[in-house]
Each structure stands twice: as C-alpha cells, then as structure tokens.
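Incident log, support desk, overnight shift.

02:14 A customer reports that sequence design results differ from what the structure should imply. Their input is reproduced verbatim below. On-call engineer (initials T.W.) acknowledged and began investigating.
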C-alpha cells in the first residue's frame, strides 16, 4: 500500500506538562498543534519556536503528512509506514486526525526516513512554507 507523503516545514516540539496544567498562552494555533490530556500527563505537540525554554520537551521533530483524506475503512496505511521506518531504525511519534495521519520523525533521521519511504515506492512532496 503506497502513500503520498508531504514533508511539512514546521520544526516541532513534543512537550510534557503536569496533567492539571491549563492550556498555556504560548500554544499557537498555527500549523499542526495537538493537545492530549490524560490522568498522568498533558502533552502538547506544537511548533518548537513558541515553547519557552523551561518546559520539559523534546525538540527537533519534522512532520510527514499522509495525503488524505483516508477513509476509516482503509487499514494498514499507518502500520505499513511505521513498520518500514522501524526497519530502517527511524523512531516515530504519530498523530491522527479525522482525515489523515501525521508521522513525526527527528530532524536527524529525516533523510533516512525519506530514502526508506521512496525506496519502498511511496511518493514524497516537500511543502513550501
């Protein structure tokens, strides 16, 4: 199952806050932003340039967007990409929306990920800003 993936321009951070923390004012609704709250933590995925330095975070992530929309009945799209990247030694962080999936890879692994995906027959597009 081949996919068309788009490399988005944002440099992303994955942040961890206490579970009771309010949505901080630095969270920008520009580009991909995800907020996930559980009983144990409050995770925020956003453009790294907006995150204050004192926040616990992992910076340097890039986004591969699976061109959608993907129907809920489509199975194996994300699994195929994840397996391929795992076999190539690329760590991922995944977000899904109603229409598609977003695979975040570390900037340092981006070229390795893109090569693996291209070699497997996936098409890659680099989005302009």
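02:41 Re-run completed on a clean worker. Output:
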């Amino acid at each position: 199952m081949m996919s068309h993936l788009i490399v988005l321009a944002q440099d992303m951070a994955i942040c961890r806050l206490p579970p009771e923390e309010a949505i901080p004012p630095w969270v920008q609704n520009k580009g991909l932003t995800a907020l996930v709250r559980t009983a144990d933590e409050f995770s925020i995925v956003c453009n790294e340039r907006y995150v204050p330095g004192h926040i616990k975070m992992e910076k340097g992530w890039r986004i591969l967007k699976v061109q959608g929309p993907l129907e809920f009945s489509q199975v194996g799209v994300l699994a195929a990409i994840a397996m391929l990247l795992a076999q190539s030694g690329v760590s991922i962080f995944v977000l899904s929306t109603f229409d598609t999936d977003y695979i975040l890879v570390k900037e340092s692994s981006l070229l390795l990920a893109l090569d693996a995906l291209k070699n497997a027959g996936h098409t890659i597009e680099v989005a302009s800003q």
